[in-house]
Amino acid sequence: MKDLFFVLLIFVRVIASTSSCDSKTLTFNVVSYGATGNGHTDDTQAFVKAWKDVCGATRNNAKLLIPNNKIFLLQPLSFKGPCNPATIEVLLEGTVIAPESVGVWKFLDERRKWMEFSDICGLVIKGGGQIDGQGAAWWNSVDVSNRPTALHFHNCKDVTLSSIHHKNSPRNHISIDTCNSLEISQIHIIAPEESPNTDGIDISGSSNIFIHSSTIQTGDDCIAINSGTSLVNISDIFCGPGHGISIGSLGRNGEDARVEEIYVRNCTFTGTSNGVRVKTWRGGEGYARKIRFEDIKVVGVKQPVIINQDYSVDMESERSAVKISEVSYRNVKGTCSSDSAVELSCDPNVGCSEIVMDDISISKEDGSVANASCTAAQGTCSHCNPIVPCLSTFKPL
Ligand SMILES: *[C@@H]1O[C@H](CO)[C@@H](O)[C@H](O)[C@H]1NC(C)=O
Ligand SMILES: *[C@@H]1O[C@H](CO)[C@@H](O)[C@H](O)[C@H]1NC(C)=O
Ligand SMILES: *[C@@H]1O[C@H](CO)[C@@H](O)[C@H](O)[C@H]1NC(C)=O
């Protein structure tokens, strides 16, 4: 009995000491690793060394501190896991900038990412700092396929990214690939309206994504959802200028694309070329389904509601297409800058099914009636202004 008590006592002590030790966050400041933060000296190696220690820390929580009032010039770098701590916090208080001219970039591999986080479970990035991709040198001089993505997440789980300013990526600002459980909020992404391919956030092959309370103003899609993605919620987003929020393009080059359970709510589009769009390529396979757009405000948007299932009436052409079904639009209101408030262009051989529109009111900016066009879409429309011709009008019993 006495022995047992003694063993228990030791056991309790061990637990108590490890937990009190683990609960203390270890902080690794990049400046302690030799980063100058003067905006001119290459600070990449200091970040690489600091990350090695953060990732290897034998604690539950470790923090990488990128301090305030400093500008860190960084070459492409990889923050790779798996890491020891259950949660790693990257506290970005200062600014990180990419090299200014194209020729001096030193890529890690042919995939061309600037900052890549991969194979990490439990990552928090926040701090009110800024990411500047210095994209201007790339936009009109290098082919898009050779331009780098600024911030890339690959094979990560339980990630939150918040309170960050992110500007002028050479290509898309944030790409998320093969991740599960990721939340983005309180971010501001900005690049000139005429900067090419500067998507805000691109998602592919990922699930359980929540993007909210943010402003995205770029030269391409504010958010694009691509193949292999499901369970995405997007809410409280200001989008524009830009190309809107897009499912796709899906099915390019015969791709078997699968996207489902997407919920876009309470978003405002100002001066964008599209509002909410579903776009697929002819010859693709798979589906885009269970997609909800709710409480959408459009202000001077060229094409507020658009489904484009790229098709050809040419009988010789490919018959396959990505199936589009169960897409609903509720409470979509505002103005369009073209004649077209709603365009549902579906493949006559495949069609779009179970399209539900309810409480739609979009007029031209001068207040006159806008147009809705429709090919091979099946579904219902209630309280729709303009009326969408191929959807049946819902008549209450
Ligand atoms: C998305 O919203 C639905 C309905 O509000 C909720 O049940 C679900 O947990 C949310 N998912 C994410 C990933 O935010
Ligand atoms: C809609 O979004 C705006 C802007 O982010 C926010 O202020 C408002 O609370 C949101 N409304 C609802 C009902 O979620
Ligand atoms: C409106 O849409 C219909 C059907 O697609 C089309 O025939 C017509 O030309 C459009 N009108 C305008 C003003 O764009």
TrEMBL record:
<protein>
    <recommendedName>
        <fullName>Polygalacturonase</fullName>
    </recommendedName>
</protein>
<dbReference type="GO" id="GO:0005975">
    <property type="term" value="P:carbohydrate metabolic process"/>
</dbReference>
<keyword id="KW-0732">Signal</keyword>
<dbReference type="InterPro" id="IPR011050">
    <property type="entry name" value="Pectin_lyase_fold/virulence"/>
</dbReference>
<dbReference type="GO" id="GO:0004650">
    <property type="term" value="F:polygalacturonase activity"/>
</dbReference>
<dbReference type="Pfam" id="PF00295">
    <property type="entry name" value="Glyco_hydro_28"/>
</dbReference>
<keyword id="KW-0961">Cell wall biogenesis/degradation</keyword>
<keyword id="KW-0378">Hydrolase</keyword>
<feature type="signal peptide">
    <location>
        <begin position="1"/>
        <end position="20"/>
    </location>
</feature>
<dbReference type="GO" id="GO:0071555">
    <property type="term" value="P:cell wall organization"/>
</dbReference>
<feature type="active site">
    <location>
        <position position="243"/>
    </location>
</feature>
<keyword id="KW-0134">Cell wall</keyword>
<keyword id="KW-0326">Glycosidase</keyword>
<keyword id="KW-0964">Secreted</keyword>
<comment type="similarity">
    <text>Belongs to the glycosyl hydrolase 28 family.</text>
</comment>
<dbReference type="InterPro" id="IPR006626">
    <property type="entry name" value="PbH1"/>
</dbReference>
<dbReference type="InterPro" id="IPR012334">
    <property type="entry name" value="Pectin_lyas_fold"/>
</dbReference>
<dbReference type="InterPro" id="IPR000743">
    <property type="entry name" value="Glyco_hydro_28"/>
</dbReference>
